[in-house]
Amino acid sequence: MSPDNLVEITGLNISFSENSVIENVSMVLKPGQITTLIGPNGAGKTTLVKAVLGLLSPTSGEIKRSPTLRIGYMPQKLHIDTTFPLTVERFLKTAAFASVADRQQALESVRAENLLKQSVHSLSGGEMQRVMLARALLRKPELLVLDEPAQGVDINGQVELYSLIASIRDKYNCSVLMISHDLHLVMAATDQVICLNHHICCSGHPEQVSSDPSYMELFGVPGAENLALYSHHHNHQHNEHGDIVPLSQSESEDADHSHCGGHH
Question: Which of 139, 161, 183 is the last residue of a domain?
Answer without folding.
Answer: 139
